[in-house]
Automatic annotation (TrEMBL):
Function: Catalyzes the attachment of alanine to tRNA(Ala) in a two-step reaction: alanine is first activated by ATP to form Ala-AMP and then transferred to the acceptor end of tRNA(Ala). Also edits incorrectly charged Ser-tRNA(Ala) and Gly-tRNA(Ala) via its editing domain.
Entry keyword annotation includes Transit peptide: no
Domain notes from UniProt: Consists of three domains; the N-terminal catalytic domain, the editing domain and the C-terminal C-Ala domain. The editing domain removes incorrectly charged amino acids, while the C-Ala domain, along with tRNA(Ala), serves as a bridge to cooperatively bring together the editing and aminoacylation centers thus stimulating deacylation of misacylated tRNAs.
Natural source organism: Flavobacterium chungangensis
Catalytic reaction annotation: tRNA(Ala) + L-alanine + ATP = L-alanyl-tRNA(Ala) + AMP + diphosphate
Cofactor binding comment, as recorded: Binds 1 zinc ion per subunit.
Domain Alanyl-transfer RNA synthetases family profile: start-end pairs: 1-716
Transmembrane spans: none
Cofactors demanded by this protein: Zn(2+)
Family assignment from sequence similarity: Belongs to the class-II aminoacyl-tRNA synthetase family.
UniProt keyword terms in alphabetical order: Aminoacyl-tRNA synthetase, ATP-binding, Coiled coil, Cytoplasm, Ligase, Metal-binding, Nucleotide-binding, Protein biosynthesis, RNA-binding, tRNA-binding, Zinc
Entry protein name: Alanine--tRNA ligase
Alphabetical list of CDD domains matching this protein: AlaRS_core
Length: 879
């Protein structure tokens, strides 16, 4: 059975059971600070389990893109090593929100597996929760009794809290679960060892394929459990493992989910992959197999993350994506011999394979390819640099073991993979101080964990209120009641309180727009300042540094109208900017991200080239023309998404939209948007682009200002212009005056270069008299009154006159120390001298470093006072 058919039969089956089929949410999570990525099928429904929203149907089914590479669910280092772990995977799921429970969930799972997919019952085992005295949760007798009607009791296994009690995190909805495992071993293997003994023991052919979670508890901050108001079903079936079972394979990678990618990797690299049924393979072939599996898995995760809006970067979710891709690059580099970018070429195959089920990978194919290619180029340069640095570490090392701290510096500062370091050291007969490396890594993790640690208390519910009304589109103040609050403590912010109101005029940070600030005023005039507002799991959370004295009182919640006006001005300007870019650069332009603050706006978009100054001016003029037209805001709320799209509204990629949406229209600009906006474009006053540049391959970024910030910008420019005119003695044409100064400066620089070259030549004869013969080497270490280029010329002048020269020249040009070392090529080998090693060692005295070739190298630094000591130590290299 083909994988496309496996997916379709699952969705068709649950549709026949009254489930509404919904599309996969983006793999990149928004509005949930506890998760970077969707790491399970239930993540997009979290708000329903928490009671913060109502689903479109009490029964839902889908296939969800998931990513597990960080936090509690971290499979990254196992991926590729075994045959059944993945970074990105599909989770087939069916959901009940307060509707059916254990009986239906278990019976339907059994029916689908044994009657629709025709998996032999004798290959299946199931587990139920054995209970927990610690949590005062009894053995799941109900699930056991249901399973007894479907399967022999000797195939039912009791599972402990680790295996059979599912929790979304340290706090929140949770409950016992019942797993289904399949035994894919041969008949001979089954006869020797019972599959029952291998369940949950990491056997590659005895694997869990389905987990039925019965959500009925809420885990509180103190670790205790309380009953949820309603019982829910949350199930997940691993699509890749299911395909393995249905296609008669013993490895996920041998199914048609991965084989098209693997065959393409073979074609590109010339490497060969052996499937899991081949035995007796060599160690070299095994390493090649692992590398191919790593690349095939990782390109899926990276491409889908990029398609959903997450570009590789050095922080947060972007860093995770970069780390996944770099792992694939280094496996290719080390075991497949790939020294040029190749992973980006796999996006075409991935698009053909999965584009029907996940159209985003098809529409964003060019972007994914460009970004991955650029990242490959960048990291391959890093690997080349790292190899040079590692060579230097080896060269300067004493003994046969490389210090773990030095290896960690290569890993942490330069991004050089530790396993590649270990491999190279092994090839050179050296050892790695792995304990020292792990100690440094653990210290870094502890520092990072401490910096990001957040401790949240339980919500204290004051008023039961499932629906929180947002009134901030129409007014900036509102009489409110606090419905619940909690205390949160973090290393970054200290102690703060999170408050939820029954209604709020405050806009919570989302959709690229920052949250409102303002205050909460009690009836007696006391003020509590709201320092920020966040959107989390479909509820608006207000952050304060203290609690009101009377928490049950009625308050007046007031938004800072000045900051809101500035933010709204910038948000409306991004819509006009988007329209202008599409008009002037072409309709290929797509928004790839934005940040709207009260001070400025940032807009990322897809484009294949730098935007020229002329094009930027056109865009700027286009936006300002719309501002001068005084276009009124035409807003439509709660309209069907299909109707909005038919009306020409632009939907932004990577965003999760509901069935009902809001549209924002200014003239011909129409977008789906939940943010705040000006009532008329004239309120923006003026739009000014302050910068344009690249973010990633095929992604450009414009930063701009409006309103008061634009006014302040022009005032500042006017002051600067006045000061420039004054410096130029009020020249009638300042531009011509500056050009004349630049021409004069360039001419003087050329004259200076000639003078310095002459000075260097004149110094040659004097320095030649100072050369000392030490152990068959002509030696000199001296500070000279030249610029660094002049010192280089002088070194080469002397070098051309002698074939046994070792000199170190120091300069302090414009207060910056520089060391220049020249070694005659004839004595580099015979005297074991290396200019690069010399300047690296002597550079320490001037608080700097450098490098170069064995016969010529330079080092720059910060400490001019260290020059004398560096020159004094130079003689040690020839003694």
């Amino acid at each position: 059975m083909k994988s496309q058919d496996v997916r379709k039969q699952f969705l068709d089956f649950f549709e026949s059971k009254g489930h509404t089929i919904v599309p996969s949410a983006p793999i990149v999570l928004k509005d949930d600070p506890t998760l970077m990525f969707n790491n399970s099928g239930m993540a997009q429904f979290k708000e329903f389990f928490l009671g913060n929203g109502t689903p479109k149907s009490p029964r839902i089914a889908d296939t969800q893109k998931c990513l597990r590479v960080s936090g509690k669910h971290n499979d990254l280092e196992e991926v590729g090593i075994d045959t059944y772990h993945h970074t990105m995977f599909e989770m087939l799921g069916n959901w009940s929100f307060g509707d059916y429970f254990k009986k239906e969930a278990i019976n339907w799972a059994w029916e689908l597996l044994t009657e629709v997919y025709k998996i032999p019952k004798e290959n299946l085992y199931v587990s139920v929760f054995e209970g927990s005295k610690e949590d005062n949760v009894p053995f799941d007798q109900e699930a056991w009794d249901i399973w007894k009607t479907l399967i022999d009791e000797d195939r039912i296994i009791l599972g402990n809290k680790k295996d059979n009690f599912w929790e979304m995190g340290d706090q929140g909805p949770c409950g016992p679960c019942s797993e289904i495992h399949v035994d894919l071993r041969s008949a001979e293997e089954k006869a020797l060892v019972s599959g029952k003994s291998l369940v949950n023991n990491d056997h590659p052919q005895v694997v869990e394929i389905w987990n039925n979670v019965f959500m009925e508890f809420n885990r509180k901050a103190d670790g205790s459990l309380e009953k949820l108001p309603a019982q829910h079903v949350d199930t997940g079936m691993g699509f890749e493992r299911l395909c393995m079972a249905l296609q008669g394979k013993t490895s996920n990678y041998d199914t048609d989910v991965f084989m098209p990618l693997i065959r393409e990797i073979e074609t590109i690299t010339g490497a060969k992959y052996t499937t899991n049924d081949v035995t007796g393979i060599s160690e070299e072939q095994n390493k090649m197999n692992i590398a191919i599996r790593v690349v095939a898995d990782h390109v899926r995760a990276v491409a889908f993350a990029i398609a959903d809006g997450q570009l590789p970067s050095n922080t947060g979710a972007g860093y995770v994506i970069r780390r996944i891709l770099r792992r694939a690059i280094r496996y290719g580099f080390t075991f497949l011999g790939t020294k040029e970018p190749f992973i980006f070429k796999l996006v075409e195959t991935l698009s053909e394979q999965m584009g029907d089920s996940f159209p985003e990978i098809r529409t964003q194919k060019a972007l994914c390819s460009n970004v991955i290619r650029e990242e490959e180029n960048s990291f391959l340069r890093t690997l080349d640099q790292g190899l040079i640095l590692l060579d230097a570490v080896i060269l300067n090392n004493i003994g046969d073991t490389i210090d773990g701290k030095k290896a960690f510096e290569l890993y942490d500062t330069y991004g050089f993979p530790i396993d590649l370091t270990a491999l190279i050291l092994s090839e050179k007969g050296l050892k790695l101080d792995e304990k020292g490396f792990q100690e440094q890594l653990q210290l870094q993790k502890e520092r990072s964990r401490a910096a990001s640690k957040v401790t949240a208390g339980d919500w204290n519910v004051i008023v039961e209120d499932d629906i929180q009304e947002f009134v901030g589109y129409d007014r900036l103040s509102q009489q409110v009641k606090i419905t619940k609050y909690r205390r949160v403590e973090s290393a970054k912010d200290g102690e703060i309180f999170q408050l939820v109101f029954n209604a709020t005029p405050f806009y919570g940070e989302s959709g690229g727009q920052t949250g409102d600030k303002g205050y909460l005023e009690s009836q007696n005039g006391d003020i509590i300042y709201i320092i920020d507002t966040k959107k989390e799991n479909n509820q608006t959370i207000h952050l304060t540094q203290s609690l009101p004295e009377n928490i049950t009182a009625t308050f007046n919640a007031v938004v800072d109208k000045i900051q809101r006006a500035k933010t709204s001005s910038n948000h409306s300007a991004t819509h006009l900017l988007h329209q202008g870019l599409r008009k002037i650069l072409g309709t290929h332009i797509e928004q790839k991200g934005s940040m709207v603050r009260n001070a400025s706006l940032r807009f990322d978009f897809s484009h294949f080239a730098k935007v020229t100054d002329e094009e930027l001016l056109e865009v700027e003029n286009f936006v300002n023309a719309r501002i001068r037209e005084s276009l009124p805001l035409i807003e439509k709320r709660a309209i069907p998404k299909e109707q909005a799209l038919e009306d020409g509204a632009i939907a932004l990629f990577g965003e999760k939209y509901g069935d009902l949406v809001r549209t924002i229209k200014f003239g011909d600009s129409v977008e789906l948007c939940g943010g705040t906006h000006v009532a008329n474009t004239s309120d923006i006053w003026h739009f000014k682009i302050v910068s344009e540049g690249a973010v990633a391959a095929g992604i450009r970024r414009i930063e701009a200002i409006t309103s008061e910030a634009a006014k302040e910008y022009f005032e500042s420019q006017a002051i600067s212009f006045g000061e420039i005119k004054e410096v130029l003695k009020n020249a009638p044409d300042p531009v011509k005056a500056i050009q004349a100064l630049q021409d004069e400066n360039a001419q003087l620089k050329k004259q200076l270069e000639v003078l310095l070259k002459d000075k260097a030549k004149n110094m040659k004869a004097d320095l030649a008299k100072e050369l000392q013969e030490i152990n068959g080497v002509r030696f000199l270490a001296k500070q000279v009154d030249l610029n660094p280029e002049g010192a280089k010329d002088l070194a080469y002048e002397l070098g051309n006159a002698y074939n046994d020269l070792f000199i170190v020249l120091a300069t302090a040009y414009e207060g910056k120390p520089m060391l220049t070392c020249y070694v005659s090529k004839e004595i580099v080998g015979s005297k074991n001298l290396n200019a690069g090693q010399v300047v690296r060692e002597l550079g320490k005295y001037i608080q700097g470093g450098g490098g170069g070739q064995p016969f010529f190298a330079t080092a720059g630094g910060k400490n001019v006072d260290g020059i004398a000591e560096a020159l004094a130590k130079a003689v040690d290299f020839v003694k």
